[in-house]
Amino acid sequence: MTTKLYVGNLPFSTNDEDLAELFRPHGEIGAARVVTYSRSGRSKGFGFVELAESGAESAISALNGFECQGRPLKVERANERPAEDEAASQTAS
Length: 93
Hints:
The protein is of the alpha+beta class. It has three helices and six strands, in the order βαββαβββα.
């Protein structure tokens, strides 16, 4: 089973592979994605990592507050987004 982690305050030069490398010592990476602006492709300064459940707490402990290129990272479990049906019914109410 995998856990999705939110990673904030990333240096703007960080790409998906850099993000994966940062978390690789903590377990098997399912996916690592830096969120970017659609028009410019520039990083928004945050991303998400899917990591094996067994390494999630280790990664949070080790990397939350870790300085990456002078920026202290914020690492926590990602909030799950509501399913499309739930979001639509909440808007209609």
